[in-house]
Give the backbone structure.
Amino acid sequence: METGPRTVSLAEEYALAVSTRARKKDGIDLEFVSKAAERIAVERAPVKAIAFYLPQFHPIPENDAWWGEGFTEWTNVTKAAPQYLGHHQPQLPIDVGFYDLRLVETMEKQARLADWYGIGGFCFHYYWFGGKRLLERPIDQYLASKTIKLPFCFCWANENWTRRWDGQENEVLISQKYSPEDDIAFIEALFPAFSDPRYIRHDGKPMLIVYRVSQLPDPKATANRWRQRCREAGIGEIYLIAARSFEITDPRPYGFDAAIEFPPHQIPASNITKQIALVNPYFRGNIYSYEDLADGYASQRTADYPLIKTVSPGWDNEARRPGAGHIFHGSSPSAYASWFKRSVAYAVEQTAADTNYPPFVFINAWNEWAEGAHLEPDRRYGYAYLHATGNILRDLYVASEEVSERVKASSDRFEKKNDTLVIVHVHYEELIGEIVDTLSRLRGVDVTISAGRAVSEKSIRYLLDNLPGVRIELFDNRGRDLAPFLDQLAFAREQGYRYACKVHTKKSPQRNDGEALRRHAFDELIGSQAIFAKNRKRFEDDPTLGMLAPSGSVLSLAHPPRHVLNRRWLDYLFQQLDIGELAESYDCDFVAGSMFWFRVDALKRVAELKLLPEMFEYEVGQVDGTLAHAVERVLAAAAAKSSFRTEEL
């Protein structure tokens, strides 16, 4: 009897996907990014990122009564289930874990983590209902803490609490009670926070966001009462911001100073529910395009009033509404990075044009776990969203006029004096001394250095002062050392260099032997004048030698773990390099670590690749699978196509 391959049912495919992910340990999945070994310092960035913060991760009597004893936000989070193939549920935390915000130590750890990745502060949702506060304990202990340094501000979540979590009038659990007297009581309750040196200000004014300004009976009168009472109390002027949550667009008719976006409100996105392979036939929710949402928000502009941009890592409230959630499909660290980059660029543009423009971009949110919107690390992506945030902010650094002029001059006045070039990429500044010490021993060589825009002015001055004649170029931290290398390779060809050596400040923090690998490569490639001269002479003596790599660094790409995560980019590059036949076998060698000597003509094909900077993925801490990883793996194959060999030392 003739048989064919058994068709796998949707249910079987779903079960396999879920069980496979459940078995994976942290760090095995390509998407998982480990915590950065070093703090991403963003103090020089002209824009600060502020993350909305939900203080509901601890039990309170009201939630015990409404939802059952011991209820916290984790109650919803842990029971979420995937509704379709590829649905990222449940979303489970790592590092800080299933925390209890009654412990101030938890908030201390959160603040340290946020600072580690360049987050400029938390914006706490503040719950006030006609004089009654809810979820106040985390905020009060944050204020009382002398060890938490991270700045903060408030967003008054002034909507009714309902059983459906949507602020509508269905089954109201506790309602707002507005009055002129309550306006005064509310603003006076904030005075201790407004007086705290950590409270976030704009132009010296404490910032207050109101989630639903249109719910106030007379918003303009309320704003006037708040301002007057703050003046009387010695607080001074305050900066009022209306969230564009439901009906609000222009804040000025309400007496507010600025508006702030609040995704996913107001921006329509394509409903793609019918395009998704649902595994729950009873699903009653809606699935939308995250890409549409991100593009809609990033494209939103206004010149009439200050609009503070807000981005969201994702949105999926399936945990709160089982089988009936609103899900924005297609979110990922890279998609978030693109949205964040565009929003930050808008803020920079506005603040450059108007120094009174608020220099902030908000993120919704730090820890909205039940709405699938969190920067806090989870089991699937690890710290990728935090990596993306910090690295994009770090790329905003602007060097002083003096340093900018010296960097430009190093390029404009550069003179080719030798036929050999050392190409250096600097990422880890603490290794610059090692680089300078090594290069200063060499004679008969020119030096060009690429570095991220975040490199400190001190480091740039040190390089220029200690390496006479060096050329320095600054790049976005995108494509790591490989994207800048393509630019430097083109420069080497234009200048007519015959030989070159590529090195970089490699650490490989994900490996225990990362430091040893770098030192080994440096020692064998350019460790002394004698080694330098010996390696260069090998190219002179052997016209077929195209690349010379450190011992132990030439590996076979045919081994599946070395190509399986890179096939998309590898296949594209193979076609561009006219070696498409390798797309099936991947039977070629590559130099792991991307430090090597090379004959400039041997990489002619690589230099002619049309790889635009924007083709390289945003830096989110990826360990593999990017265009940069693929470029590293095709260099030796490109040299072989041009009839040049690759050897190890």
Remarks:
- The first helix runs from residue 10 to 23.
- The chain has a mean pLDDT of 91.
- The chain has two domains: 49-394, 401-648.
- The radius of gyration is 28 Å.
